[in-house]
Amino acid sequence: MNQTLIPPVRRAFAALAISCALVAGLAPAAAATGSPAPLPASSETGKKKLKLDASLSKKQVKVNEKVTLKGTLQAQEGADGTDSFEAIIVQQLQGSVWVNIADTTCRPNSTFSLKLSFSFSAVITLRAYHPETTLYASAYTSSNLTLRVG
Fold first, then answer.
1. What is d(CA 4, CA 7) in angstroms, rounded to the nearest whole number?
2. Most CB atoms closer than 10 Å: which of 54, 75, 77, 111?
């Protein structure tokens, strides 16, 4: 009985593998012919620039103690920017990768504040980051913030 069930199962897996291979092979070709090439990151035509500054209320805290991260989001080139809330993401450097750990929103030319706490002892490197939107280019703090937890 097992001998009669194995060939249909093998045929199903073979068909699935062939389908996946065909889709994987055709997807890049379809993308290349169906859509224009993406613009390089350096040409952020029409996007307004932002300046993002942030600081910590303390440089050293105990485990589970709250620390406040305060900052400003300034629109460059005279844009008032009061119509939109923009995302601000706090990132922690883990190894060589920036990992999102908290977020808030802020209007351009305004301030933001976040309370953070950590449940382990470490020296933590943080930065604030604003992802690119349809109106504004991406931005991050010019210097990293160091917090000693312990």
1. 6
2. 54
Instruction: Note if the pTM is more than 0.70.
Output: no
Report the length, in residues, of the chain.
150
Closest CA to 114 of 88, 140, 93: 88
* 3-class state of residue 11 by DSSP: helix
Secondary structure (3-state) at 28: helix
pLDDT score recorded for residue 76 = 80
Quote the tokens at residue 2: 């097992």
Spatial CB neighbours of 58, under 8 Å, sequence gap ≥ 6:
67, 147
d(CA 88, CA 105): 6
Q: What is the largest CA-CA distance in the chain?
A: 77
Contact call for residues 140 and 127 (beta carbons, < 8 A)? yes
Contact 76, 69 (CB under 8 A): no
pLDDT of 16: 52
Q: How many CB atoms are located within 10 Å of the residue 32 CB?
A: 9
Is residue 116 within 8 A of residue 67, CB to CB? The reply is: yes
User: Helix/strand/coil (H, E, C) string of 108-121?
Assistant: CCEEEEEEECCCCC
Task: Report pLDDT for 111.
Answer: 94
